[in-house]
Design goal:
The chain is of the alpha/beta class. The chain has 2 domains: about 200 residues, DHBP synthase; about 90 residues, Threonylcarbamoyl-AMP synthase, C-terminal domain (Rossmann fold, 3-Layer(aba) Sandwich), CATH 3.40.50.11030. Helix content is about 30%, strand content about 15%. The protein is built from 9 helices and 13 strands. The strands form 2 sheets. Strands 7-1-2-6-3-5-4-8-9 form a 9-stranded mixed beta sheet, sandwiched between helices. Strand 1 and strand 2 form a beta hairpin. Helix 1 packs across helix 4. The longest helix has 16 residues. The chain is globular and about 60 Å long.
């Protein structure tokens, strides 16, 4: 996966690396979402990420690496199960939270003594990281709290004339952000759900993965109650019957959108129907929310996804997109 894609010249990667080396920002594709990349050792560049996104300074960033072997350059006290996970799931949508080395910027970690790291599984990201020969922070390339971008066009939509250089790597394959796991001692804990599940981690790592709330209180991306959200009011409902009940009680001039897995009930102006499997739904989710957000609706009704573990990441994103 670390070769430059045939439709993206090496000269384009080199120009992006030059921009990053100068302390500038570059939007890069990953398998999860597009990230707003900056040199993870450059305080000024890191600060630019916070400013452009409008991100509060108490929200830490994830360091993206070219290979698992680089993890020890950023983190201390790496448990054996975390090394096993890195070998098995990297490159891929898994972020490991570990004690940080002294040189790691506290601006990057939001003052915490831990650092979050991952190796993205996208040829453009890996080619950029390999040529850059260092770590890059790369939070989602959008305004803070808004829907994460899964295409280059969505990055331009977010930032307009403030858009930095964008490497167009096509639509993101996974479509939602990585699973984040705190690896602090013998009791790992999922801090943000994603498409890699607790069951997968336990099977590979041979260790129980705790549910949220059992490990030390560590701040990571995506924990706030309203996030990944459209600007249009968004309401999560239990299923098609609840959607129909909402529509029956609503004003006749209310412009309503629908996102879900069943055919849209009568009275919906615009709908996005997702495929009925977790991987496909994750790929389609943010693009679907953006499509509905552009439609000038008054409210977007969202059908709740299934409750099993495979849907945990999607469920988390929709709960936050619709707010408390």
């Amino acid at each position: 996966m670390n070769a430059t894609p045939p439709d993206l010249p090496q000269s384009t990667i080199e120009r992006a690396v030059s921009e990053l080396s100068l302390g500038h920002l570059v939007a890069i594709p990953t398998e999860t979402v597009y990230g707003l990349a900056a040199d993870a050792t450059n305080e000024q560049a890191i600060s630019q990420v916070f400013v452009l996104k409008g991100r509060p300074p108490d929200r830490p960033l994830i360091v993206h690496l070219a290979a698992a072997e680089q993890l020890s350059e950023w983190a201390l006290d790496i448990p054996e199960y975390a090394r096993v996970w890195a070998d098995e799931f990297w490159p891929g949508p898994l972020t490991l939270v570990l004690p940080k080395k002294a040189h790691v910027s506290t601006t990057l970690t939001a003052g915490q003594s831990t650092v979050a790291c991952r190796v993205p599984n996208h040829p453009v990201a890996l080619a950029t990281l390999t040529s850059f020969d260092g770590g890059l922070v790369a939070p989602s390339a959008n305004r803070y709290g808004h829907i994460s971008p899964t295409t280059a066009e969505a990055v331009h939509e977010e930032f307009g004339n403030q858009t930095p250089m964008v490497l167009d790597g096509g639509a993101c394959e996974v479509g939602i952000e990585s699973t984040i796991v705190a690896c602090l001692g013998s009791k790992p804990e999922i801090l943000r759900a994603g498409m890699i599940t607790a069951e997968q981690l336990e099977t590979v790592g041979g260790v129980r993965v705790n549910s949220p709330g059992m490990a030390p209180n560590i701040v990571v991306p995506g924990q706030v109650s309203t996030h990944y959200a459209p600007r249009t009011r968004c309401q999560l409902l239990a299923g098609p019957q609840a959607v129909s009940s909402f529509l029956d009680a609503a004003s006749s001039d209310l412009r309503v959108g629908y996102l879900g897995w069943q055919p849209a009930p009568s009275g919906v102006e615009k709908s996005v129907i997702l495929e009925a499997c977790p991987a496909a739904s994750a790929r389609q989710l943010y693009a679907g929310l953006r499509e509905l957000d552009r439609a000038g609706l008054d409210v977007i009704l969202v059908e709740s996804p299934p409750s099993d573990q495979a849907w945990a990441g999607i469920r988390d994103r929709l709960q936050r997109a619709c707010g408390p």
